[in-house]
Design goal:
The complex is a heterodimer of chains A (331) and B (340). Chain A has 331 residues and is an all-alpha fold. Chain A contains 15 helices and two strands. Chain A has a two-stranded antiparallel sheet with strand order 1-2. Chain A starts with 7 loop residues before the first helix and ends with a helix. With 340 residues, chain B is an alpha/beta fold. Chain B has a six-stranded parallel beta sheet with strand order 2-1-3-4-5-11, sandwiched between helices. Chain B has a six-stranded mixed beta sheet with strand order 7-6-8-9-10-12, with helices on both faces. Classes of the chains: A mainly alpha (331), B alpha/beta (340). Chains A and B meet through helix 2, helix 3, helix 4, helix 12 and helix 14 of A and helix 1, strand 2, helix 3 and helix 4 of B. Chain B: Keywords: Signal. Chain B: One of its GO terms (molecular function) is carbohydrate binding. Chain B: This is Sugar ABC transporter substrate-binding protein. Chain B: InterPro entries: Peripla_BP_I (IPR028082), SBP_2_dom (IPR025997).
Chain lengths: 331, 340
């Protein structure tokens, strides 16, 4: 724990140019741009507005989960339950609205409350008992997974009322169709990026991640802060649940099974440290896009999907290696 | 210190991607699955997409082989994709979108979730893409242009009739090692078996889900034997589950007096029939499903004629202990035509 690794170090960087070069998102951004350049040269269909709109649509669900995951990882925690909690939220929303004759907006609100409740419970267990986040969220993963399958009776929910899929609808922008859900995701990224970088709350989150004890001694109410972070993350999973329904048009009990790992992948690729206290949600956005661009680009090139898995794995190991090496040198 | 480290870390990350990109080029250059990758843009030839449930199941590996062979013969470009796990609907939706963006003429898909995939298929068809379901029908079946698949009810019925002939009127105590709740393939095979046997679910003394997995099949059989030691007929969803059941029975010394029947016709499974571990299996033909699917897309690209309705790609009962009145082929034929 040295001053050089604190997020404030960047703020003191002397020139804009230097600040840009040393920002933690510069590496991921360069990687993303290189990947885009590569795929633009490789296929005719990559570099079109429609295709970029498609990529954003494809990553919005994992992207929204990854915002919550970033907040938790910034506190040196981890959330293995995010995908399962989202799946449960999506089944609650879909089933309530499609079969339970609950007004769609009430069903959506219920889904958000349920997901937020899971987050709150995670936070309480992590903070009050306290238990390691890995264990709490591993348990919650199984709880949410089981509840999803019990409540859905293993059935996919179809014939959803219109408001549930509204975010999946498109509007034209120039020659491109954009979904409303993409805008929601981008807005959430910007909102949380602002909250983290420019509010007292954001500074407290970083301080907590750097050293919970030091943060507490400095008068930060770390207990309340931690529980709050897990709850906000839960609410974000609820929004992801709605985005998921709007995208696929159904309530799917099988959904989200690998999304916990995909969200962690995005956070790591975006340069956020798994040891807490260092990183950003904008980096995560770039991380999410890197995965989406590779998947889309390789498919356009006609490369089998297993190579996407291979490449993602290699990228994750490289990203963590870089994080570790830079930490060692900084000490 | 930290600043220079950060700078070099940025460069490292960038270098990493360049390296991976090079890896990608090598990968598609080596042509496994898609030798067409290097000339993908603007060559003007017909593109066909194949989306399977997973990349790893031998059944789908064989399906891919069939599609690749047919694509080569017909001079079309094949691109393939798969879900990450059985049931990964979102992964299949993404694959459909990317293939439509890549300008495919037709998509062959084995739906992981028969209902959940429907809206994505509708979007693709609205853009003029021919969509054919392979192996597993969508719900409703009319959501795709055509279905090329095994008649799973018939596959179950064949082993049911065979088991009935072997039992010769002896009182049957049946164990059913099923797939998973709500999955149509499993339900149809299960019901087909009961129909062929002339039994009802009341005659099934133990039913368990296995996910078609050997280890889970073994556990399920062990538990069934605990529950009902008198079991003498075992219906299994596929041969891995059957082999799991065999292991469990062998541990109890019961492998000789319990009849195991199965569906699938994979090479390992067919060999197990030859070795006497499984009495009979209904063999299906994934290679044929994929090959006919590719041909249908080629026809559509040439004449604009869309394939429609259901095409039965056939199923054959394989056993070395044939019974009177039940049509079957021996394992010699089975091993020549097996997949995996």
């Amino acid at each position: 724990m040295t001053a050089t690794t604190s997020p404030y170090a960047e703020l003191k960087a002397p020139t804009t140019a230097r600040r840009l070069l040393t920002a933690p998102t510069t590496g991921p951004l360069a990687a993303l741009l290189l990947a885009c350049a590569f795929f633009s040269l490789s296929t005719d269909q990559f570099l079109t507005g429609g295709n970029f709109s498609l990529i954003v649509q494809q990553v919005m669900v994992v992207g929204t989960l990854a915002i919550g995951q970033t907040l938790i990882i910034l506190t040196a925690g981890i959330d293995l339950s995010c995908g399962a909690v989202m799946a449960f939220g999506s089944i609650v929303i879909a089933k309530m609205a499609a079969e339970g004759s609950v007004p769609p907006l009430v069903a959506i609100a219920l889904g958000l409350v349920v997901c937020g409740g899971f987050g709150l419970l995670n936070g309480l267990l992590v903070q009050k008992i306290p238990l390691p986040p890995f264990i709490v969220t591993l348990g919650m993963l199984n709880v949410a997974f089981a509840l999803t399958h019990i409540y859905s009776e293993e059935q996919t929910v179809t014939n959803l009322p219109g408001p549930l899929t509204a975010l999946g609808q498109t509007f034209p922008l120039g020659h491109t169709d954009i979904t409303y859900g993409s805008l929601v995701t981008i807005a959430l990224f910007l909102l949380l990026a602002y909250a983290l970088s420019s509010t007292g709350w954001g500074r407290h989150v970083y301080a907590l991640g750097n050293s919970a004890e030091a943060a507490r001694l400095n008068g930060i109410r770390t207990s309340r802060l931690t529980i709050g972070i897990y709850t906000v993350a839960g609410l974000l999973y609820g929004i992801a649940a709605l985005l998921l329904i709007s995208r696929t048009g159904v309530g799917d009990p099988q959904a989200g099974q690998t999304d916990n790992l995909d969200s962690i992948t995005a956070v790591v690729l975006g340069g956020t440290s798994l040891f807490g206290g260092r990183g950003s949600v904008l980096g995560t956005f770039i991380g999410v896009l890197i995965v989406g661009v590779f998947r889309n680009g390789l498919q356009l090139m006609g490369v089998a999907s297993i190579y996407q898995t291979l490449i993602t794995g290699v990228l994750v190991i490289l990203a963590v290696t870089v994080d570790q090496l830079s930490r060692k040198k900084a000490r | 210190m930290s600043r220079t480290t950060r700078l070099s870390s940025s460069l490292l990350r960038a270098a990493a991607v360049t390296g991976v990109a090079a890896l990608t080029l090598t990968a598609c250059g080596s042509g496994s699955g898609s030798g067409s990758g290097s000339k993908s843009s603007g060559s003007g030839s017909v593109k066909v997409g194949l989306i399977t449930k997973t990349d790893t199941n031998p059944f789908f590996v064989k399906m891919k082989e069939g599609a690749e062979k047919a694509a080569k013969e017909n001079g079309v470009q094949l691109s393939t994709a798969a879900g990450k796990f059985d049931g990964d609907n979102a992964g299949q939706v993404t694959a459909i979108e990317n293939m439509v963006a890549a300008g495919v003429k037709g998509i062959l898909i084995t739906p992981s979730d028969s209902k959940a995939i429907v809206p994505a298929i509708q979007k693709a068809r609205a853009k003029g893409v021919l969509v054919i379901a392979l192996d597993t029908p969508t719900e409703p079946e009319s959501a795709v242009d055509a279905l090329f698949a095994t008649d799973n009810l018939k596959a179950g019925q064949l082993i049911g009739e065979y088991a009935k002939a072997v039992m010769k009127g002896k009182k049957a105590k049946i164990a059913a090692l099923d797939l998973a709740p709500g999955v149509s393939v499993g339900v149809q095979r299960h019901n087909g078996f009961l129909k062929g046997f002339g039994a009802t679910d009341k005659d099934v003394v133990c039913a368990q889900d296995t996910g078609g997995d050997q280890a889970k099949g073994q556990t399920a059989m062990e538990n069934c034997l605990q529950k009902a030691p008198g079991i003498n007929v075992v219906y299994t969803i596929n041969e891995p589950a059957a082999l799991g059941a065999y292991t469990a029975l062998k541990a109890k010394g019961r492998e000789k007096d319990v009849l195991i029947v199965s569906v699938d016709g994979g090479c390992t499974g067919t060999q197990a029939v030859k070795d006497g571990k499984i009495a009979a299996t209904s063999q299906q033909y994934p290679l044929k499903m994929a090959a006919e699917g590719v041909k249908a897309v080629v026809t559509y690209a040439k004449d604009g004629k869309k394939a429609s309705g259901y095409t039965d790609t056939g199923v054959t009962l394989i056993t070395d202990k044939a019974q009177d009145g039940v049509t079957a082929k021996d394992t010699g034929y089975g091993l020549e035509n097996c997949w995996g």
